[in-house]
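Why does this matter for the project? Reviewers at the last site visit asked to see concrete outputs rather than summary tables. In response, this paragraph embeds two records directly. Each consists of the residue sequence and, immediately after it, the corresponding structure tokens. Nothing has been edited or filtered.
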Amino acid sequence: MNRRLGLLISLIVIFTAVTVYAAEGGEHSSGGLKYWAYQFINFAILVILLFKFLAKPIKNYLAQRRELIEKSIKDSQEAKELAQKALQEVEEKLKLKDQEVQDILNSAKAIGEQEKLQLIQESEKMKEKIMEQAKTNIEFEVKMAKDALRLEAAELAIQLSEQKLKEKITPEEQERLLQESIKIIEGRN
């Protein structure tokens, strides 16, 4: 193809030179019939040669160029469609991710609220247990204190009784009470 193109360019240069030479020719006739006939024949030969040598390569070149452009357009359209699909997929994934994030946040909030309520309930139960334990401890301490007071009151009463008895009882009365106590003890056995 390059060979034909080189040949064609050479022929164009030759015929152009011939045409220019003929136009400037030795005779400066202002347009005789012969002159115009040579001009027409030269031009016709040039057109025929150009058509013969260049028609097929130009046709092939233009066909290849058209195919290349069509292929480029088709590839571009396919790439555009793929890019749009990819964009839609990414947007859908982003929407799904946004929804997943929102679901996770809602779930975390719900779990947090449940744990909060559970902690409040557990703290209320613990508070009740502590209050019951404190009440039990207070009751026990009060009972112990009452028992201690009774015991102390009893001891004081005994001491007071002994003291009063010692002051009122004579040695003879003591002997008589002792004998009566012995008889009561012997009677039980």
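We now turn to the second protein, recorded in exactly the same manner.
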Amino acid sequence: MVNIRLNNGNEIPQVGFGLWKVEHTADVVYNAIKAGYRLLDGAFDYGNEKEAGAGVKRAIDEGVVKREDLIIVSKLWNTFHEKGRVEPITREQLKWWGVDYFDIFYIHFPVALEYVDPNVSYPSGWTTLDGKVRQSKATIQETWEAMEHLVDIGLAKSIGVSNFQGSLLIDLLRYARIRPAVLQVEIHPYLVQEELVQFAQAEGIAVTAYASFGPQSFVPLKWDKAVDCPRLFDHPVVTAIASKYNKTSAQVLLRWSTQRGLAIIPKAQNPLRALENLDSTSFDLDPEDVKAISGLNRNLRFNNPPDYLGTLYIFA
């Protein structure tokens, strides 16, 4: 398996397994580990960390892996950005997973929202209990310093940011005592983000792409932007390249990302699809094929909060 070396010397697999909207999570995680996946990408907001932890425990108890073989990833949700809330919720999430540390812990979004007690509402989502989107006054610097403390006390080996754009990264790097090891953002052929990728990589920050299949994961949410968009799996440019290499469209889309030096975290409920995704680094696309897929760029972002909240213009 191909690994990516982070700026702190730690390594992560280039192909991981994402847990957003995964059902029957314990069984899926266990089967993913048995299939060969070693990076599991979770989050408070996914609402399935206890179940993911059960799958990990089963795999460890049966001797499939040891804890140190796995890269367990989670994220700090928006309602815990105040300095005093970061460590307590991280410890709670670790308890759900049944582990002592996260290998990577991200700030999920560059947005601080009013606190919501997870014992009352879990996952908390974007709104307060009365259904309002209310921001808190926590700055990214305050939150990042609390994230650095997690590394200091051994609760996280690496810390990173998700859904950050270039200007926020530039600002973060001015004061970061511990530089972000990874940037996780939406990247697919409809949203290539070439400049952001180049900037992050030039700064020694690894980049993980989510939503590698474009609209595919968002169609079940019935978001118009995704429903009305041509499926990348069926796009003639992608299908022609898949035929050329005798691979699936999914494998071609994933290889397009990994050949750009990106890590990927596709999910698959189907065990055969999971194996195909894991095998997506076993071939190389010709440069002209990478260029042809990149040429599909529309700067089309599916995970855009104003589209589903009517506010929080993170990417404006």
